[in-house]
Amino acid sequence: MKKGGMMIITSPVEQLFTLFNETSLRLQEELGCSYLEALAETGENLFQGSVLQEELSEVTVKWLKKQYEGIYLERYTNEEIRKAFQLVILKGMKEMVQPNHQMTPDSVGMLMAYLVEKCIKEPSFRLLDPAVGTGNLLLTVLNHIDKKVAAAGVDIDDLLIKLAYINANLQEQPVQFFNQDSLEPLFIDPVDAVVADIPVGYYPNDIRAADYQLKAENGHSYAHHLFIEQSVRHTKPGGYLFFLIPNGLFESEQAGMLHRFIKEFLYIQGLLQLPVGMFKNKQAAKSILIVQKKGEGIKPPSQALLVNLPSLSNKREMDKILVNIDKWFKDNKG
Ligand code: SAM
After folding, report:
1. How far is the CA of 101 from the centre of ligand 1 (A)?
2. Which among 41, 184, 272, 314 could disulfide-bond with 288, CB atoms 3.0 to 4.6 Å apart, if both were Cys?
C-alpha cells in the first residue's frame, strides 16, 4: 500500500480486516442493515466471487468488485482469515450487548484444541459444537488439529450461525450447520467429541425441558444443565466432552442433580480454571470441564486433572503447567 510516497506494509490479518470492515460499512449504509448483517453479506460475496445484493447502486457494485478483486483468499492461511473475521465480529458485537452471544476467545479455543488432540487418539473423528455461535471456537479447534474431523455446529441465532457458515466457507472447513434450538431433537449422528462454550441462564421452554433428566423441579430449568445432558446424549460411549463452564456450576441450588447425572453417565477427567484476569470479574470467570462418557471398557482416570491456569501470557508459568498437563496425559491416556 502506498501513502505519501511511503510504503506501508500491512500484515495479512490487517489486509483482510480492512477489506471486511470497509465493504461491511458500505453495505451497511446502502442496505440499511446492521454491521454484522453487512459482514455476512460481504463474506458471502467474497466466497461466491460476485456481488449478490440486487438493491445496490451501480457505483457500489463496481466499488465492491474492485475491493474483492484485490484480495486472493488462497494466499491467506485459515488462521489469518479466522483472526481477521474475529476482529470484525468483535467490532460489530460492540453494537449488541448480549453476554450469552460473546465469541469464545482464541486462547480458550487453542487450549481446547490441545486437550482434544491429547484425548482423541483416532486419526479421524466426529465433533459437535451445540452452541456454535460465530464458529470461532469450533474453527480455532479445527485449525489446530491435525486430524480428519467431520464437524457439526448448531445455534439458535440465525445471524450468528450465518457468520459461522461464512467463516467456515472462507476457511474451506467442511462443517455441517443446523440453525435450531439445540435442546429440540437434533438430527446428528453420535459424535466422538463435543466442544462447547455453553449458554448460561434459564431455558424458557418448560415443555421441552420436561424431556430432560436435569429439568428443574420447579420453574425454569438451567439451559447450561440441559446443554450438558443433550451433548452427552449425542456422544458415543467413551467419547469426550469439553465444556467452557461458569466456575459456580457445581455450587448452584440445582447442582445436586448435576452431580448425580455426572456420576451416572460420565467420568470427570479434568477441570482447568482459567485466569480470572481473562474475565470482567470473578463472577464471570470460567473453567474448562473435560468429561468422558461411560461405556464398556472405559475406566476413570486414577486422578482427575485439576489445574488453576496462570495468566496465559505468562509464558514461564504456562510452560510449567503444560509440562504437568502433559505428564497427566501420559500417565492417564498412554
Ligand atoms: N463458541 C461460540 C463462538 O465462538 O462464537 C460462542 C458461544 S456463545 C457463548 C453461546 C451460544 O449459544 C450463542 O451463540 C447462542 O446463540 C447459543 N444458544 C443459546 N441458547 C441456545 C439454544 N437453546 N439452542 C442453540 N443455541 C443456543
Report:
1. 6
2. 272
Instruction: Check if the beta carbon of residue 214 is closer than 8 Å to that of residue 221.
Output: yes
Query: Using an 8 Å Cβ cutoff, are 152 and 178 in contact?
Result: yes
CATH H-level, domain 106-333: superfamily: Vaccinia Virus protein VP39 (3.40.50.150)
Cell of 17: 480486516
Q: Identify the residue whose C-alpha is closest to ligand 1 atom 8.
A: 101
Residue of the CA atom closest to atom 16 of ligand 1 = 157
DSSP 164-204: HHHHHHHTT--EEEEES-TTS------EEEEEEE---SEES
2-96 classified as CATH 1.10.1200.10: no
pLDDT in tens, 140-160: 999 999 999 999 999 999 999
Q: What share of the chain is helix, strand, coil (3-state, %, to 5)?
A: 50, 20, 35
Residues 6+ apart with CB under 8 A from 69: none
Question: What residue ranges do the domains of the chain occupy?
Answer: 2-96, 106-333
Question: φ, ψ for residue 199 (rounded to 5)?
Answer: -70, 140
Query: Comparing C-alpha atoms, which of 137, 135, 128 is closest to residue 166?
Result: 135
Whether the Cβ atoms of residue 243 and residue 288 lie closer than 8 Å to each other? yes
Could you read off the pLDDT of 234-293 as tens digits, one per residue?
A: 999 999 999 999 999 999 989 999 999 999 999 999 999 999 998 888 888 999 999 999
Residue closest via CA to ligand 1's atom 19 equals 199
Q: How far is the CA of 322 from the centre of ligand 1 (A)?
A: 29
Cell matching residue 79: 488462521
> What is the rounded CA–CA span in Å between residue 109 and residue 136?
8
What CA–CA distance (Å, rounded) separates 65 from 117? 41
